[in-house]
Amino acid sequence: MNFQRLIGASTCVIAVTGGASAAVLFQDNYSSFASGNLAGQGAYAQIGTNSTNPMQVSGGQVVIPGGTVAYQDVIRNFDYTFADGNSLFVATLLTVHGAPSFDANSGNGSAYFLSPRMGGFENGRIIAKTTQNDPTKYLLGLRATGQSANPIVFGTQELTFGQTYAVILAIDLVAGASNDIFSLYVDPVSSRPASTVYVSQVNAGTDPANPFQGVRLAQFASATIPRADVRFNNLVLTNDFSDAVAAVPEPATLVALGAGALALIRRRKKA
Ligand SMILES: [Ca+2]
């Protein structure tokens, strides 16, 4: 079930709910993007010098094929001042079709496929690896920064290759040093306190610096750190957790709600 196809093409939604400060900062619907190179469409641009095998949009999804050769990375640019005491949420519908082996990146390898970029560094790196005993399952991992103080931490809930999940990365900036919190949610409910944290890490390294610059989609790989095979459907940045959940509804929930949900979504979009 493709949520974006249900509601039709929409490249950007600015929604203000629950108070003046809550806002969807950007919401990209890849089904309105032309199939082909992602860089150059919307606010997406190549980052770094590697232009090999440009990142592709196909059928309304961003495609990152698995492999062991580094390809082009792309950033979704968005400049934003992100102050202590505030939270940001990056949400996507994620489908992982393959991932490095359980042991391949259990250390400080950095084969992340998605990460916000702040102050020139990738903070909040999302990683996947196959489970130890079931080749049809994988685990998501998280790394607050690329610093050695922050080894990759993996969740324990096994996810299924080929299944689409609503994934939200939460970043909570806390006043003081080495205390900012990065958390992953998988198929959360709209209330953050009622949602289960999949995995989290307190940044033990240097605090992220302003500005928030956007979200990097990475096709990094090497002979020792292979790349996961992933698809992104929708990419959302918001400062409100419930907005993030609403922007990337868990697919099974949408199927269960059926036409009623569709009608509700249409009414909300017209409002
Ligand atoms: Ca801090």
Walkthrough of the structure:
By secondary structure, this protein is mainly beta. It is 11% helix and 37% strand. It has four helices and 18 strands. The strands form three sheets. Strands 1, 2, 4, 5, 7, 14, 15, 16 and 18 form a nine-stranded antiparallel sheet that branches. Strands 3-6-17-8-9 form a five-stranded antiparallel sheet, with no helix packed on it. A hairpin with an 8-residue loop joins strand 14 (164-172) and strand 15 (181-186). The radius of gyration is 17 Å and the shape is globular. The model is unreliable at 1-20 (pLDDT under 50). Calcium ion binds at residues 84, 173-174, 176-177, 179-180, 207. Calcium ion is lined by residues 84, 173-174, 176-177, 179-180, 207.
Topology record:
Blueprint: H1 3-7, E1 24-28, E2 36-37, E3 44-47, E4 56-58, E5 61-64, E6 73-80, E7 87-98, E8 114-118, E9 121-122, E10 125-130, E11 137-143, E12 153-154, E13 159-160, E14 164-172, E15 181-186, E16 197-202, E17 212-217, E18 229-238, H2 241-247, H3 251-257, H4 259-270
Antiparallel strand pairs: 1-18, 2-4, 3-6, 4-5, 5-18, 6-17, 7-14, 7-18, 8-9, 8-17, 10-11, 11-12, 11-13, 14-15, 15-16
Shape: globular
How does the helix and strand content classify structurally? mainly beta
Strand content: 35-45%
Order of helices and strands: HEEEEEEEEEEEEEEEEEEHHH
The residue-averaged pLDDT reads 87
Major beta sheet summary: 9 strands, antiparallel
Number of helices: 4
Bound heterogens, unique? calcium ion
Measured as a percent range, the helix fraction is 10-25%
Low-confidence stretches: 1-20
Radius of gyration: 17 Å
